[in-house]
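## retry 2 of 3
previous attempt timed out at serialization; input unchanged, resubmitting
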Amino acid sequence: MKLRNKSRCISTLILFLVSCSFIDLRDLDIQISIPEEGILNKEEAITINFSLPVSDVTVKDRIMIQDFFSETYINTDSKWISDSKIEISPVENLLQGNRYLLSLSGSVTTSSGAQHTVNIMNTFYYVNKSEPVRLLSFSPDNAVTIGVFDSIQFGFTDSINTELFEKEFSLSPTIDISYQWLNDNKNVTILPKEQWDNLSTYSWSISSDAKSSSGQPFYSDYNGVFIVQKDSTPPTLLRIETGNYNESDGSFSTTGSNFALIEYHTALRFVFSEEITETTLESAFSIEPRNNGRLWKDTPQQWIYLPDEGWEQETEYLLKISNDVTDLAGNFITESYKTTFTPAIVPVSIDILTASSTTQGNVNITNFNSSTEIEFKTDLPENSMSLTLQLSSEQYDTYEEQNRFINSITFQGYLPPVTDPVLESYKWLSNNTLILYYSNFISSSTNLPWEHQLYKFSILSDSTNANNEGEYLAEEVSIVFSIIN
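## retry succeeded, writing output
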């Protein structure tokens, strides 16, 4: 047999030297030549190249070819091209389009007597380009009943000349259809442009005049029938799953159906008993309070909802799907669906706030929403003080998160209104500890009835300062300082 000079996959193993009469420290590299795209044509063989001369017996007995799925071994013939190159050919007919496994496993001895343990496996497909095209599969099976919107599919042993196939394929009674070709034109899905006629029996036929893309004819004519009956079974919502949706690869990893586990970015997947009409679900679906998100079809029976900006903490949502949902045949869903849930998002909390100056010392504050004035002496001459916030846990990890939190903080001249103190600088000691440095406070007030100047320190409770997990303060922080210098 003639070996084409093509190489798809080169398997290289570093093999281990076993005890022998003398030491050979050279590694044995093995290269297996599989034709391009892993397809072995009838006229091709497989060659195995060794970097060192090897023993004939130890190699031939360890080369196997077997059917990948049935694991049936295939009889092979071998021919040594040189003392480091062997050619392997099957001696029995391989099946068109089948997948096979070539393995070389065990101990291989080189001509120097060194033993090397090898374990190489390569898969390939067999194609006989001189054989006619055969029909490998078709769905539905002969005389099976399908719905008015269902498709029919065919699979072949070779790539098909699609234009010629569509001329040689016929249906009776005739109906306008569309073709969807897949897998290098080896598979085709045929759909009615509108729908199959209900309570009709269709006969299909593929003429042997159809050909592969390389010009090989079909093995024979192929014929079959299928029956159409409109679906009368109403669709049902089987379950709603919570999980994580990966936008980079479109995958959904479910965490079950526990609404108590919904987090900031949790997606919802709706699984129906059959394919439903898109427009009916889109109009029947609602979430209150309104949550900006996307609802789309992931598979014919599964839909995914992903909130664009995340779920809100401490918010009870009402999810509803009305019974206006229909399947493709127009059957309405058996019943409407309604549930409430509150996302499991733990709000940010402050353990302690410490106001500090050299003059005053440290004042620890644990009540963050009090109307009681906290008397405080700032440091001269800048009239400065610092505030240290200790959050309950590690909350703000990134610069963006920390910056959002800083922007939600204000320190204002309160009563009477005066110029606000200046935030000179701030520093995150960790992702849950923040120090703020303020100056430019005024101690006394000339406006009666206030003897001392009052300032209000505030932190908003708002999703605009949430961290990346959607967590923010449950309540606004509001502390009044009376500067008594």
